[in-house]
Fold this sequence. Notes:
Elements: H1 2-18, E1 41-42, E2 49-53, E3 59-63, H2 66-93, H3 97-100, H4 105-114, H5 116-127, H6 133-149, H7 154-159, H8 168-183, H9 187-198, E4 239-243, E5 254-258, E6 260-262, E7 270-276, E8 279-285, E9 294-297, E10 300-306, E11 312-316, E12 319-320, E13 323-326, E14 329-331, E15 334-344, E16 347-357, E17 362-366, E18 369-375, H10 383-392, H11 396-403, E19 411-417, E20 422-427, E21 433-435, E22 438-440, E23 445-447, E24 478-479, E25 483-486, H12 508-523, H13 528-535, H14 541-551, H15 559-569, H16 580-596, H17 598-602, H18 613-617, H19 637-654, H20 660-663, E26 665-666, E27 684-685, E28 696-698, E29 704-707, E30 710-713, E31 719-721, H21 739-743, E32 748-749, E33 757-761
Parallel strand pairs: 1-33, 3-7, 11-23
Antiparallel strand pairs: 2-3, 2-33, 4-5, 4-25, 5-30, 6-29, 7-8, 8-9, 9-10, 10-19, 11-18, 12-13, 13-14, 15-16, 17-18, 19-20, 20-24, 21-22, 26-27, 28-29, 30-31, 31-32
Amino acid sequence: MRWRRFVAVLAFAILIYLASNYLTLLAPFSGTLWPLEEKKEIKNPYGKVEMFYDEFGVPHFVAENEKALAFAIGYVQAKDRLFQMDLYRRMMRGELSEVFGEEFYESDVFYRKMDFARSAEITWESLKDSEIAELLIAYSEGVNHFIEREKMPMEFQLANYKPKKWTPVDTLLIAKQIAWGLTGNFWDLKRAVILEKLGEKALELYPMSLGHEHTIIRVNKSFVDWMKSFESDSSFGSNNWVISGNFTTTGKPMLANDPHLLLTVPPVWYEMHIQLNGFNVRGVTFPGVGMIIIGRNDFLAWGFTNVGADVIDFYYYVWNGSKYLYKGQWLEPERKVEKVRVKTARGIEERELVVEKTIHGALIERYGFRVAVAWTGLTNTSEALAIYKFNYARNISDFIEGLKFFSVPAQNVVYADIYGNTMYYPAGKYPIRLVDGKEVPGNRIFNGSAGEGEWRGFRAFGFSTWEGFIPFEEIPHVINPDYIATANQEIGYKKHYLGDAMYFADPYRGMRINEVLEELAAKKKITAEDFMNLQRDTKSKVAEYFVPFILEAYPNMDEKLRAYAENLKNWDYRMEKDSKGALIFAVWLEKFVNETFDEFFAVGLDKSYLPRLYVLQNLPANSEWFDDKRTEVVETRSDIALRALNLAIQEIEKKNYKVYGDLNRLALKHPFTKVLNYFDYPSKPMDGDEFTVFNFRRTSDGYQAGSSWRMIVTFEKDYCVIPGGNSGNFFSKNYDDQLILWAEGKYKVCDFSVRGERIVFG
Length: 762
């Protein structure tokens, strides 16, 4: 493995030397490309910390001083993931094109106009007097100690630049980047485009709610009286679930979590273990953040899935030249001229960019609209303080105090502790919109000139007081459920608008998780192995509901089509790599969706505009959406299912697919993949899809996504795995050593034992 990587580096050097057309992406090769040196002693201005790398490259920090600990974490994260940290920082600051060229200029323009950097600065100003301020500073100093004194990771040498110093604002910017990725949804604008292109009839495909019974909080005969206190409110992505000790072999609660994010090289998560004055915390964080974001400590465990709520709004204005009308006054937008540095074949070129803001937020142009953007992350948020409190909470009361500080992204939090408590709380800031004194949904573009839909207590790029948001105590939550599961589906809350159906996932994963949990609870005491089996479950509820649409067309099939349909008659609905049934269904489903909603493509709307699959499932068999207006006959669902099967067979035979794994392959790419693919992870066939609990999928823009971290906590023996390796150093044995474990649904033990190669900070 090490020899292969050495050869890869030499090949890359030769490639850069020979291929001058790559100079718009990377600078000429320079520097010495050898593994990072392993120092055994590192100076720490704040005190002594011992760090041990275990066999999976997970650092175990043993400390008696929080600032010394923060410094050591900063240094070690920089050693393992500095290039990844710098890429995220550059993206959010709009500084990618300075290093990687013209290709990233439009991205830089967007991020500069949104001015995420200013929102991180405001957040830092609000935290300067908090208990974590000194820790954020010490963490930054640890990162900078590495930058200033150590050899840079190979990617910096290949790209021929050195990173700038790290600051607390950069750490908070990483948090903004994650939050934006989970909540920066432009659906409201897309909805307006659909209305313009297809008319009012299309809105029937986008209901306020999907209307299913599989919400997170639900009335179910197998659940107990803990629902009653929320009946007056009509009760309130990624998978997580928690089950009380009443159903486990240990008598203690059990918790599982696998957040679904982009699958990257290296992984989005960084695993670590902290032991501070004998107090243990273990789990994962984002590189650039010095605290555990998902994990457990000596007393409790917690997991996240994305709520997906509508926490972004758009405002249009009446304009008079350069001024916009706001409540009877003509105002000038706040304007700032910035210079974007762009790397070209001729050298660095500076381009001027005007960044504009209105009273509502950043002014941008998207989908043909010139609008101001209000997003809950564009102000002083305190999720860093929340995470700190989660790390060191000792009971459910401590943890709930932390939840009060959680702003964005709104997260479905599940909790369990050693005392037997369980909890579900969708923590976050949820805006209430008013027009003419009445509460309205936020899935529209508001008239900013009239002050419609404003969030009371919110100040973009300033300090917010949040009084116009759902009060924390009113956010529907559940204390001590027997079990509860979330999979990004609707919460089941009616008192206030949280988002329409397009803000939440289809219910299929949630349906399957609850189905299995109910079966397990009814039959036996649940074990960690049961949780593992559920996390690797490949049964598709989508297939269970949609395969009958294919089979209802069976009488009209010719012999060849019937042969393919026979595979589906006896199929177990499991999306497994060696299954022919899974292959046929996956290709058919894509064709069925496309052929049903051909009107969208005819007016230039791509797949990102299409409605939820659950809406398609529940269309009447003779719905006008199945009719192809280009033909004289009136098509029904059966006709479109048959047409889709024909198209699916053509594709399967043309590409010579035999089983699902031929189509569904893991192919995770390093940022340098365009010039050399040696840095990429190995490819292999995969189980699962977007709608199965074992989650793996290809995104519409060519990336892959899925379970970015799997964790099972029993409070006796815990398990975890990441999709790759903890080290971002290509030469490290821990570069991709967990990839096969993860891909095959296996785990490593995740405990508090301190072991491995020792490094001393002091």
